[in-house]
Write a structure and sequence with these properties.
Layout lengths: L3 H8 L4 H29 L5 H12 L5 H13 L2 H20 L3 H25 L7 H5 L4 H9 L3 H13 L2
Length: 172
């Protein structure tokens, strides 16, 4: 029914009563349609990347909400017919439905899991590569500076750290 509402609005809607019948039908179902598409989108998101993907969704969803009114206005201005301008929106509605026909949940799940595995493998490789070697102040400053490096680490304020650093640099 919801798929026929936009199409009917192009060829029908000649009487006000028709508008009062079709708008509640379309309005009550469009919320469910949006929830359905968000649910599908949520199943495609790899774990740990939710914020990135939902930010992208918000930008493309709410950030482009001006496009519909601009198209309706441009077509209505050019053709002089509000009915033709809404026909362009119907076209976008059906294009979205056609795109959804090619959506494959099983393939999406496989690709999401493969992506998560690659991410996990990269993280493990990064953790294995970085091995911290033991560091001693003598390696950098020489034998005589060992005693002056320790107070810098234990210093409580910026002034104390600065003074300790100056003493370290000034010592032979």
């Amino acid at each position: 029914i919801i798929g026929l509402c936009p199409l009917y609005s192009i060829f029908g809607l000649t009487e006000p009563l028709e508008l009062f019948i079709i708008v509640p039908i379309y309005g009550t179902h469009s919320g469910a349609l949006q929830a359905f598409t968000r649910s599908i989108f949520a199943t495609m998101i790899p774990k740990g990347h939710e914020a990135e993907f939902f930010t992208l969704l918000q930008l493309t969803d709410k950030g482009t909400s001006f496009v519909g009114p601009v198209i309706v206005t441009a077509v209505a201005t050019k053709t002089g017919s509000i009915r033709k301008s809404f026909a362009t929106l119907v076209l976008f509605f059906y294009l979205g439905a056609i795109v959804m026909l090619f959506y494959n949940q099983e393939k999406s799940d496989i690709e999401r899991k493969q992506f998560e595995e690659r991410e996990h493998k990269k993280e493990e490789e990064t953790n294995n590569i970085i091995e911290v070697e033991e560091y001693s102040p003598e390696d950098t400053f020489g034998e005589n500076t060992t005693a002056t490096v320790e107070p810098v680490v234990e210093a409580a304020s910026k002034d104390e750290v600065g003074d300790a650093f100056k003493e370290t640099m000034d010592s032979p």
